[in-house]
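[SOLVED] Need 3D model of a three-part complex

Original post:
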Amino acid sequence: MTSLATYKPVSWYQRKSVRQTARKIIDYLLLILPSILFLIPFFWMLSTAFKPPKMVYLDPPVWIPNTPSLQNFIEGWNYVPWPKFYRNTILITLFSVIGSLGSSAMVGFAFASLNGRGKNFLFTLLLATMMVPGAVTLIPTFILFTKVFKWMDTYFPLIVPHFFASPFFVFLFRQFFRSIPRDLYDSAEIDGCSPFGIFTRIAVPLSGPIVATASLFLFLGSWNDLMGPLIYLASSEKFTVTLGLTAFTGLYFARLHLLMPMSIVAMLPSLVLFFLAQKYFVRGIVTTGLKF
Amino acid sequence: MSSTVSLEQTGRIAGKAQTAGKRRERMGPLARRRERWFYLMISPWIVGFILFSGGPIIASAAISFTRWSLVQSPDWIALGNYTYALFEDDLFWKVIKNTIYYSLGSVPSGLVVAFALALLLNEKVRGINFFRTIFFLPSVVSGVGVILLFGWIFNPRFGLINGMLARVGIKGPGWLYDPHWAMPVLIILSLYGVGGTMLIYLAGLQGVPQELYEAAEMDGAGTWARFRHITVPVLSPVTFLLLVTGIIGTFQVFTPAYVLTNGGPEFSTTTIGLSIYFNAFQYNKMGYAASQAWLLFATILVLTLVQFRLSKRWVHYEQEDRVK
Amino acid sequence: MRKVFTVLLVVGVLLGACATPTPQIIKETVVVKETVPVEKVIKETVTVKETVVVKETRVVEKAVTQVVEKVVTATPSIPEEELATRDKPVTLRIGISAQPPDSPFRKALNDLQARHPEWRIVVEEMAGGEMQRVPAQIAAGTLPDVVRITGLSAQPWIRQGAFLNLQPLMTSARYDVTDFYPGTADEFRFQGAFYGVPAAVGAEVIYYNIDLFDKAKIPYPTDNWTWEDLRAMARKLTLDKSGKNADDPAFDGNNVVQWGYNTNPGAIAAWAHFYVEPFGCDYCANEDCTRLKFTSDVCLNTLQWWADFTSKDKATLYDPYSGKQTGTPGDPFLSGKVAIGNNGFFAVAQLKEVASFKWDIVQPPKGPTGKRVSVFSTNGYVIAANSKHPREAWRLIEELTSPDFMKAEFAARGGALPSRRSAAPVVLATLQPPPANIKAVLAALEYGHPFRPNSFGAFEVYGKIIGLTNAAMKGERPVKDAYAEAEKIANDILIKAEQDAAQKK
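Solution:
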């Protein structure tokens, strides 16, 4: 940022370069300190993963294993058929993200920019569906999907509902589409664009960061979903990665030395995706979009 | 507010709702066409609601008026579950109190922390991607293992926190094992998960038109003034979204308490989400669980409607501002 | 990910062409928009979406009525002749916990299938979701014909008629019930009839850390020991920071680093039998254990004995598993923090995997009356009350619980033992290497029994009294007061739960 005080003779600390450097140092300090707090659990996770099993349960705990070993990774990897589980999870996640992203963005756009009788009521209804806790709709939903639709042991209960918009993401998109200046829509409409055309040609390209954010959330939601696969999948060749992890958590005993390395393996795709999606957060599509 | 000013504003139908009758009278062909499009574009959700949510939700409402153990057919007991929850079950009120405590503790602090982090992470410094990843890391991982891991830091004897406190001569509390400290620990743990909130703020920050800042700078506004009068109001729709969904989410919180404390010690971390789960799946009281869920639902609904009412005072939408 | 964006954008732009089409036409295009990206990768999804649309109206209707509908039908009975005339294989669904495809159980099941072409066995696996899946399937009326469930949750379902009474089927097949260890069937029995056949059992025995005993120069426990012996040993094995044991007058009870014994009846209320029964205290106030009485003299004395052990001697933990006291979450015996610990047989497998010390097992100690107790965790097979093929399902259970099948399933696993006398010793012999005193487990199988209470309201009781019982053990509240309050809370819950269930009849 610039300073207005260019006329006065400036002391060293007012000089731009010095202030910028100072600011950077403060920025880094502010970033690094909480980072350490956030990283400690993951350090422990890594340390557990690379310990030989007999070191995991030692007391006092060992922070850095003196003989790091890949034994846990190998044993954990051979414990259940992970490649199959990955394929299944990717399949479910891909469809869920596509379905939910498309439908939620469109519904969100409609709630933000169009009007119709009962809109407020419908929007309240949409939000209300978020407010009913899953524990009590679990049984009726289960009956619906397994008895009425006969979807037991298929991926449909995990995928199909996503194609009909998810309330949180509708709300998310609505809030963002509402902050886009209306003149953009107006001028497009005057050019003869239909509201759906405005949605796809103007609103969506303008919402790069939020589309990236929503995709990431949807991905994580599907990827990490436990309850859905837990109650609807019944043959282990259809299992997902999170179900695979439950093999290490028992009623009496958690195989921490296998759970930790496999949790790391399970989170890798999400991390990679986050890295890839990053550039959409910084690109500033909106800024360029606003200039036409 | 907005730097871009439209030439024709009047007669446009903006986000704000008006009564149907009035609108109908002055509805031009354009407005009617838009209404058709509105229904068409929300139709996926309507169909989905009818197919997948409506039925289970109505069913759960019906269940709340019954005594039902899942095995035998439900008995209709009218408001029995509700009167039991409100007037007989001492635990229910404690559960409500815990839930409000958790929500008040984690939503505002979560928003502040997430906003602050998002501002920091919006800076253009070297390695920013790396830092973004670190703060998002806890939100990427899920599952019991990681919650256990976080709980471990708060272990009274060997946990990192008490280790550091001991170094400066303070004897740390029992954290998750102390009825007064267990809930604060869960609230602190919730801050580990601000990555998502932070990301939505970050996306919002990316969307703030640079012209606004440039114009304000020309007017001589300082950093604080720009933050106060541009960043905060422009992001107010985002804050509103996160506030509403945050309250809904925290009122339903389940997993951390289930894994770390199982509701204890002395029920100090039994939130309503936990209570519903226990009644439904451990105590064979599905009807009672459903009635608690609907009391929760009613509470959240009222809170949300109040928030929508209040939001008109502090949430600024580009589209609406121009209609005023 | 970028591909997804691109697909969406391309499709979107194609459809959002800036013409102003009429609504009817658009309706079609919207549908196309949703199916296009789907079709590219998988065909099935598209077909399902069609079914969704077709079923739209009746779905809602059903979902609502479903809940009110009575889901459990009367026990079906199929005449014997009808069975013989069937020529198509009968589909039998069996619900089990998730198993690797090469697990001994799956191998044995495949053999079984090969031997019985008249069945088509369909396996439904649960990845630890028994708590949710089984209730959901019971409510939906879609429980598999045969389900393997944990004994702990069986009683409330049995008592409400979710499972079939196996008694008529059993007698006709001349099933040898006496081959099962008596306690293993307790959780599957109601009013004298069997509703399930026990498969696996974990019996509590005592584990001790040989290294710690050697270090303290204390002779190892023998199968003949008493609880007083255990307490005396535990005091010698409890060490403070400076290495003084609990018998030393200078012992610092606030800085214990190693404990003699791992827990007490207050910390794990459900296990309380294990600790109090040998002393002559049975807190079940009736045969069915649907009322509790902690406040008899003998029970209060026993509980006081334990409270002293815990809070005066400080030689046993009041909070063993959370890590509050020991600093290491998880089993304190595994991390070498306690010298003597009770644990199920499953611990053998874990100890082999992770223990960095020498250990052995011994039978639970005797009480003053000479009585010993072991606590069982069991699982077993039940038949869904609405199974269409109860006879075939029973035949399948007979096969699954035959000594040969059990020997194959449990061999060399060391996690649990078969519930049959003719199988358990054989399985134990396959353990490599076995604990030296392996016969202690076999002895415990003869006199063990499961947790009680285990019927309506039991879980709620455990959840709601544990704070009180724990406070009593820690010495924060007088034993008498705390247990009197716990008794009242427990009986209130049990009475209400029973009344709720009784109103159905």
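Edit: Chain C touches chain B through 51 residues (CB under 8 Å).
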